[in-house]
Amino acid sequence: MTDPTPTDTSQNLLLGVGSQRAGSTLLYRLLHQSVKGLFMHPVKELHVFDSLHHLRPRKALQSFSKNQLQRLRNQHGDLATAQAKGSKRLICEIRTNTIFSERDISEVNYLDLFRPCLMHHQWIGEVTPEYMLLSEEQLQGVHDQFAGHVVPVLMVRNPAKRFLSAYKLRHFYMRPADQPMPENDALLSNLNLLLDQGEEDGWVRAQLRFNQYREAQQRLQAVFGDRALVLSLDTLTQQPEKAFQALEDRTGLVVDRPLAETCLQQKVNETDIKLSLDPDTTEKMKTFFAGALEDAEQLCGEHLKL
Fold it and tell me: 24: burial class by Cβ within 10 Å (0-12, 13-18, 19+)?
């Protein structure tokens, strides 16, 4: 089985490839709202390549897309009418979810998902954190589809902080709608249990893969060379000019500074789950993630805040 082959390879691709809970949504909004000449797909996470290579269940993409079509019907009514009267961006969103809901991912043409918005956009993009897990061979399959440039962006965050963010999000989604926010003691108890179990717990094992920044960067570097960009969430939020310049240097695109600054002031993906660590848990977290933090800081060349 091969990667879906586009019908037109003139486009360049700006691809967010990770990591979960490390600023990928903020990166998407920044690129969408403030980078001139770049079309970011209205479906932030297309999940084409991770689904194709079975890193994510293919049925998950189909099920999600069917739910998105229902959401779009609720918002816009009859979808055929919406496509006839709507913007190209809305047409693209409806069209993509329709394709995903009806076809196996192996039959999907990647560039076709960006129609009818390809014209006048030499750069297209999306952000799917699971692409961080693609092997070097699988990344090469992405690279080979484009005669133009492919610029992958790997977002990095303090591994302990990223893990805690994923932990809180997990409880946010697990909590029944009619249930109050978990007590801090209960959250701490469960967190300590997970840390004690370590990789014996399936969820912890899956999360630790999203902290393997160095391994991911090595795969990206091997395929995409110096165009692969490693960008920490700390840099993006605390030294944005450095981040903007790095994006511009690799793509030739222009970041609109006022629009970008406005975007960075917006809160994204916040939950109402509050967690305060006690001293013992704090020390346990530091010990558990010490190696991962050292690797991440060496990769970024900066101290990563907890």
Answer: buried
How many C-beta atoms lie closer than 10 Å to residue 270's C-beta?
9
Supply 230's token pair: 């490693």
Q: Is 66 in contact with 117 (CB distance < 8 Å)?
A: no
User: Tens digits of per-residue pLDDT, 32-42?
Assistant: 999 999 999 99
pLDDT band with cut points at 50, 70 and 90 for residue 180? confident
What count of other Cβ atoms lies within 10 Å of the Cβ of residue 239? Answer: 13
Taking the CA atoms of the chain, what radius of gyration do you get in angstroms?
A: 20
- The phi-psi region of residue 63 (left if phi > 0; otherwise alpha if psi is between -120 and 50; otherwise beta) is alpha
Give the mean model confidence (pLDDT) for residues 267-277.
Answer: 83
Question: Six-digit token pair at 97?
Answer: 């979810």
pTM for the model stands at 0.93
19: preceding bond cis by omega (within 30 degrees): yes
Give the count of alpha carbons within 13 A of 261, CB side only: 4
Q: What is the pLDDT of residues 86-138, one digit of tens each?
A: 999 999 999 999 999 999 999 999 999 999 999 889 999 999 999 999 999 99
Nearest C-alpha neighbor of 127 from the set 55, 57, 59, 49: 49
Mean pLDDT of the region 250-262: 96
Q: Which residues make Cβ contacts (< 8 Å) with residue 115, sequence separation at least 6?
A: 92, 95
